[in-house]
Amino acid sequence: MTELLERVIAQLKTLPADEQDAIASIILEEIEDEILWDKAFANSKDALAKLAAEAMAEYWAGKTQELDPETL
What we know:
It is a single chain. The protein is an all-alpha fold. It has one domain (11-62). It has helices spanning 3-12, 17-43, 45-60. The radius of gyration is 22 Å and the shape is elongated.
Protein backbone atom coordinates (compact mmCIF):
# COMPACT_ATOMS: atom_id res chain seq x y z
CA MET A 1 0.00 0.00 0.00
CA THR A 2 1.33 3.44 -0.82
CA GLU A 3 2.05 6.08 1.78
CA LEU A 4 -0.63 8.34 0.31
CA LEU A 5 -3.26 5.62 0.51
CA GLU A 6 -2.28 4.87 4.08
CA ARG A 7 -2.74 8.56 4.95
CA VAL A 8 -6.15 8.60 3.30
CA ILE A 9 -7.29 5.51 5.17
CA ALA A 10 -6.06 6.97 8.45
CA GLN A 11 -8.13 10.09 7.84
CA LEU A 12 -11.14 8.05 6.77
CA LYS A 13 -11.04 6.18 10.06
CA THR A 14 -11.71 9.45 11.87
CA LEU A 15 -14.97 10.02 9.99
CA PRO A 16 -18.40 8.75 11.01
CA ALA A 17 -19.35 5.35 9.59
CA ASP A 18 -21.89 6.76 7.12
CA GLU A 19 -19.28 9.11 5.63
CA GLN A 20 -16.76 6.28 5.45
CA ASP A 21 -19.29 4.17 3.56
CA ALA A 22 -20.13 7.02 1.19
CA ILE A 23 -16.47 7.56 0.30
CA ALA A 24 -15.85 3.81 0.03
CA SER A 25 -18.75 3.55 -2.42
CA ILE A 26 -17.27 6.30 -4.58
CA ILE A 27 -13.87 4.62 -4.60
CA LEU A 28 -15.37 1.23 -5.50
CA GLU A 29 -17.37 2.77 -8.35
CA GLU A 30 -14.21 4.39 -9.71
CA ILE A 31 -12.32 1.10 -9.57
CA GLU A 32 -15.16 -0.72 -11.32
CA ASP A 33 -15.31 1.98 -14.01
CA GLU A 34 -11.56 1.65 -14.60
CA ILE A 35 -11.90 -2.11 -14.99
CA LEU A 36 -14.71 -1.65 -17.52
CA TRP A 37 -12.71 0.93 -19.51
CA ASP A 38 -9.63 -1.31 -19.50
CA LYS A 39 -11.70 -4.23 -20.82
CA ALA A 40 -13.36 -2.06 -23.45
CA PHE A 41 -10.04 -0.75 -24.77
CA ALA A 42 -8.43 -4.19 -24.65
CA ASN A 43 -11.27 -5.59 -26.73
CA SER A 44 -11.21 -2.74 -29.23
CA LYS A 45 -7.49 -2.48 -30.08
CA ASP A 46 -8.00 -3.86 -33.58
CA ALA A 47 -10.97 -1.60 -34.24
CA LEU A 48 -9.11 1.47 -32.99
CA ALA A 49 -6.05 0.61 -35.08
CA LYS A 50 -8.26 0.20 -38.15
CA LEU A 51 -9.94 3.56 -37.55
CA ALA A 52 -6.57 5.25 -37.06
CA ALA A 53 -5.25 3.74 -40.30
CA GLU A 54 -8.35 4.90 -42.17
CA ALA A 55 -7.97 8.42 -40.75
CA MET A 56 -4.32 8.59 -41.77
CA ALA A 57 -5.15 7.32 -45.28
CA GLU A 58 -7.76 10.06 -45.63
CA TYR A 59 -5.23 12.62 -44.37
CA TRP A 60 -2.53 11.56 -46.84
CA ALA A 61 -5.11 11.50 -49.66
CA GLY A 62 -5.99 15.12 -48.91
CA LYS A 63 -9.54 14.28 -47.85
CA THR A 64 -9.35 16.01 -44.46
CA GLN A 65 -9.53 19.61 -43.39
CA GLU A 66 -8.05 21.52 -40.50
CA LEU A 67 -10.30 21.74 -37.46
CA ASP A 68 -11.66 25.21 -36.83
CA PRO A 69 -12.98 25.50 -33.25
CA GLU A 70 -15.05 28.51 -34.30
CA THR A 71 -17.24 26.34 -36.53
CA LEU A 72 -18.00 23.63 -33.97
